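Query form — protein Peptidase S59 domain-containing protein

QUESTION: What is the three-dimensional structure of this chain?
INPUT:
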Amino acid sequence: MSPALPAPDLGGLSVEPSLWEMGEAELSCVVGLRIGKAGIGHVTFNSETDCRGLLPRLHEILSVEQGEIVVYPDPAMKPEVGQELNKPASVVLYGCMPKSQSRLTDSRACDRYKQRVAQMTEEKGAVFEDYSCEDGTWKFRVHHF
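ANSWER: The structure tokens for Peptidase S59 domain-containing protein are given below.
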């Protein structure tokens, strides 16, 4: 087992499990990798992820901002589907409320907005899971990035 690596500055991103405490063998097959920002959202890769080459550039290939998670913002950095982080994942975003929150005061308005979020999710090629009108929590899955 190699010595633990120092944790780089990830611009507020949190990573679970703690990759910096793992050796090479463990880093080569991390299951349940979760990357996010407190109060904003997170992405979880449930299948095995080889994290050995990701650590030094994680902050360059993934960003979490209000209402969106961007993986591989630079298309030149994006690997083939199924490699690194370009694979199926579950996404949870918090605080994704409509511009006019007053539209969600009744159950009919909430249902209409939830349908709109579901439609938008599907149009982007993702699989809608849930949306909470109470706190704006939006859950969906992607096949790849």
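ADDITIONAL NOTE: The longest strand covers residues 33-37.
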